[in-house]
């Protein structure tokens, strides 16, 4: 592994000249992360689903990055289509001039149902998007980054990387596996100067948690257990993502960084 640069600390977080491929950045945590990385100087490649004719694309993240004066591109991919996922990294390389320095796997879906009734199709859908697509993109990134001896892979895990949750067996299984995958890849690639780490969000006020936010009993139960006294917001991930994407985290390898307002401390 290359040593951490001996430069003034603010420059450790400078991402100028770095190309980022990020999934799940249309809204929520992913959007906040993509914008934060662009603010730090990176060029961004956003992964979005190709919409049906007549549908209006969500361009909020794209427009926000463009307004910063940063380079931003979009590649289309449905992450539930694993063959399309296999073709995604080469497409991103092409639009980004042959270089991807940072991969951020932030996309995810949720399905809720009691485990005794959990549909097999829901299980397959969650595992394909939340785990298999992460593996395929990470493997493609490793094949690109390891020979060049540089790169960052950042996977979004969850509190359910550590806990089982309720009525979300597929999500818990996928996020637990993403945590172990993060460590496994780090064990192999750290010596090649490729750092692989994860971010584990706590309870965050996003679309994915809409059902919990509308459930008065669960909302109260969860909120009372968060030491910070509030649910997280997407902007709470701007600092952690820039840290893990930058040279400031050069010696951070296989870490699962929990961003949860203190939930796991309870």
UniProtKB/TrEMBL annotation:
Belongs to the short-chain dehydrogenases/reductases (SDR) family. This is NAD(P)-binding protein. Residues 18-192 form the Ketoreductase domain. One of its GO terms (molecular function) is oxidoreductase activity, acting on the CH-OH group of donors, NAD or NADP as acceptor. PANTHER family: 2-DEHYDRO-3-DEOXY-D-GLUCONATE 5-DEHYDROGENASE, SHORT-CHAIN DEHYDROGENASES/REDUCTASES FAMILY MEMBER. Keywords: NADP, Oxidoreductase.
